[in-house]
Amino acid sequence: MPSYRNKPPLSYYRTALPGVDYSELQGKLIVIEGPDAVGRSTQVRRLKPWLEEYGHAVLDTGMARSALAGKGIKEAKEGNTLGPITMTLYYATDFADRLENEIIPALRAGFVVLTDRYIFSIMARAIARGENRAWIERTAGFALVPHVVLYMRAEVKDLISRVVVGRGAFDYWESGLDLHFGQDMYESFVRYQSRLIQVFDNMAEPYGFQTIDASQSADRVFVSLQRAIAKVVEMESPAKRAARLKSARAAKPALKLVPAVKSANKTAPATKTARKAASTAKTALKAGRAANAE
Fold first, then answer.
1. Sign of the CA dihedral 163, 164, 169, 172?
2. Crossing angle for the helix pair 185-204 and 119-128, nearest 10 degrees?
3. Which residue from 60, 247, 264, 279 lies 20 to 30 Å from 23 (Cα-Cα)?
């Protein structure tokens, strides 16, 4: 697998998406990755208001949320009939639509884009299902290089406990039942997620993942994510931000009003005209009253 560690943030990995403008991107792209049931969505829900508290505009996005393909993916998965290549292309389409219409515009506007999964999950799922690694890497090459990829890693036993306690049941697709990795849903989940974790582990070095120990409590994972994000996103406290804005306003020179210069000897033309009209009206009124008296 080629190394992309030295690719600059917000460049693309291989080839630009045709017809998409990648210029003038100034925001930050933060990716939260990891296997199913590792707790990514929970952490994204906590990270967004935390970033907003520090004055950042935040776009949070994730797989199967595009206007173009999101609904179709959900409907297709309900029938449990998607083949692995069709699924990969469906998710790649969803990602391309969100990249063009959500992620790039937000980055151009200076937003922090916080994404729950990225192109790496699409690649990992495809490879874990036996698809050609070189093909999926080329297919995903239009993705932007993130500022940081935070890989929430946990062992399968940790994922199982979270599924049982949190959901109470295993998911058909997260268990890899479409390819019958095991005799039942539990066995299939263990084997499929083990393969998925192995693929993520193999991607960590060439793609520059920062690994977060997700076997810890949710609060400790949150602190680890905060520390990693603070290294790439300016984290100015609300108090410091208020003080800076106040100082900037105080340093700004006040506007000085220059009083109008009045001339004692000259009367404005408009004022002269108004006085003359008033005098004429007054004379006409007196003449009218005298005529009535006669």
1. positive
2. 120
3. 60
Alpha carbon distance 132, 134 (integer Å): 6
Looking at every residue in the chain, the average pLDDT score rounds to 87
pLDDT for residue 82? 82
Which positions ≥6 away from 43 have C-beta within 8 Å?
32, 152, 218, 221, 222, 225
How far apart CA 54 and CA 239 sit, in angstroms, is 10
pLDDT tens, position by position, 197-248: 999 999 999 999 999 999 999 999 999 999 999 999 998 766 776 776 687 6
**Residue range 254-281: average pLDDT?**
53
Tell me what pLDDT residue 46 has.
Answer: 98
Q: Which residues of 32-57 are buried (b: 16+ CB within 10 A; e: fewer)?
A: bbbbbbbbbeebbebbbeebeebebe
Adjacent-strand bridge partners of 112: 28, 58
User: All domains of the chain, ordered by start, with CATH?
Assistant: 28-234 (3.40.50.300)
Residues 6+ apart with CB under 8 A from 157: none
